[in-house]
């Protein structure tokens, strides 16, 4: 079983907030999957890149990580996001799960929020 890397997950939020997307992509496996309830799943790096570079509805925001829990190959995170979605200022809680592969990259990601689209 792969080892989870909580530091990489914390880096993920810092990179997203800094809009350093190439650094974000470096954390993920080429066969990454990203599931967000109520929205289409992303499968593979091309779809993942397109989402972050063109389709992500959240902007100019920051994540605050409250809890990080490691279990085997998975890191679970609870936190809040504050930023802009369209013309609206938003702030909401989230729970994310990140599963690592044997190469130390995030291969699966799940996001849960009380928003319809993130």
Describe the 3D structure.
By secondary structure, the chain is an alpha+beta fold. The chain is 25% helix and 48% strand. The chain has 3 helices and 6 strands. The chain has helices spanning 6-17, 21-26, 45-55, and strands spanning 28-35, 42-43, 58-71, 74-85, 88-100, 106-113.
Q: If you consult CATH, what is the topology? A: Nuclear Transport Factor 2, Chain: A
Q: What is the number of domains?
A: 1
Helix percentage range: 10-25%
Strand order of the largest sheet: 2-1-6-5-4-3
- Kindly, what is the distance between the CA atoms of the first and last residues, rounded to a whole number of angstroms? 30 Å
Largest beta-sheet details: 6 strands, mixed
Q: Class by helix and strand content? A: alpha+beta
Radius of gyration: 13 Å
Number of helices: 3
Shape summary? globular
**Strand segment tally:** 6
Q: What number is the mean pLDDT?
A: 91
- List the secondary-structure elements in sequence, H or E: HHEEHEEEE
CATH architecture tag: Roll
Stretches where pLDDT is under 50 for at least 5 consecutive residues are none
Percentage beta strand: over 45%
What is the CATH class name?
A: Alpha Beta
